[in-house]
Amino acid sequence: MRIRYRVAAVSVSLALAGGGAVSVAAPASASASASASAAASDSTATSSFSCDTWRYERGRRGHGASITCHGSSFTAYAVCHQPDGYLYVHFGNRARSGGTSIAWCDLNAEVSEAGAFPV
Question: Which of 64, 72, 78, 101 could form a disulfide with 114 if both were Cys (CB 3.0 to 4.6 A apart)?
Answer without folding.
Answer: 78
